[in-house]
């Protein structure tokens, strides 16, 4: 179906389309332009009023194109749509090829409504293996849009204001990797700030609704430290914490760092906390330090350090004062290495407890993989990808935060690729994320951003040019997204993200060897 004609083009950014006929054209529509042996896929991003009847256009249209001339002369003032060229498509020796645009279509080329077949190349890109949704085009599409698990270590950004479907998008990714990838190929740590990924909410179901189905049984482990009447997960060992881990959480002074290092070096991880307790009693009874005095620690420094350590000791739900080799971090690392999805409920923890869990687990996963890379590179190559899902990422990856020094999440973004570890940064305000960090997040799922500065931040830091999609990003509806890729596809794809609630209903309806509900769900709660 012919919907218009090309009346101008400016490489590489704009092809102008003069509409003909009754078809309503909207921003975001994709059309096919036929130009000689080539065709082009173009996407509308703007519209303007235009008076096409002028001498230059009429001269061109008169060259054997009476059909076009008649349309133009009958229209008077009309609308012209500006579109961007997505790709060129050509055919040679019976094979089809698509590539990034390196030319423009001829003037007066016919513009056709694109059919589902015109997007054949999407399903022929072999690296894409994580279904996310379907192509969002006029009339709907059966073409499935996927992410690449091999690109997990180059990180994923999920950006949207509240209510646009960030949680739904991440749940779809989790379902897809469990459903479509072999067991043991990806391990995931979900740092769940709102307890939605496992339990769900009033609006969206959680992974627990799939836990008894054959394809998902034994794939998800859920940790809740404060839920009553259930088996509690392992704790973090305070004596086993490193100085940097403690400093990242409670911000020690230089003198306090030196004092803590002195205790750990003198007495080891098994005894330093015990020796500090003895010194605390010594100060209370005699006004002096026994062990710390020999180490050169001043009483004032000791007292300030002890008060801060005591804050961590007070997190009894998640912290043990005993030295434990097989603590929470070891348990989580083992499960990730086996390819499980590990979800930790942070919603009922205090701010300090949350910082302890988030910082220490992430740090130890990265340190563990860095250690293996340095000693046994072949062993790391055989391990699954590790994906860390972090909500409200702008709070720990912001410019102001990172001015105080690099944290573990900026380290994941900068170094994770070397260790097969990637970050899914979920954020409402991407403008707050440090631009250097944001530029290294190479797959972006953009679900709707109303603030101009948020859109500008995503556009400036994307590996693809998103500037012409600014207006569309502003008006995306819930579940609609633009997905930009690091390399697989040279232009962002408009996507309708699958509805996770519908996925759960379909999985339950098909009854994939449903186990009887006998309390055998393989989760740690």
Description:
- The protein is 33% helix and 23% strand.
- The chain is α/β, with parallel strands linked by helices.
- The longest helix has 25 residues, at 351-375.
Concise structural overview:
With 525 residues, this protein is an alpha/beta fold. The chain contains 17 helices and 20 strands.
Number of strands: 20
* Helical segment count: 17
Mean pLDDT: 87
The level of helicity is 25-40%
Lateral strand order in the biggest sheet: 9-8-20-19-18-10-17-16-11-15-12
Q: What are the segments in which pLDDT stays under 50 over at least 5 consecutive residues?
A: 512-525
Q: Into which percentage range does the β-strand content fall?
A: 15-25%
Rough shape? Answer: elongated
Cα-to-Cα separation, first versus last residue: 58 Å
Query: What is the CA-atom radius of gyration, in angstroms?
Result: 29 Å
Main beta sheet strand tally, sense and closure? 11 strands, mixed
Please state the structural category: alpha/beta
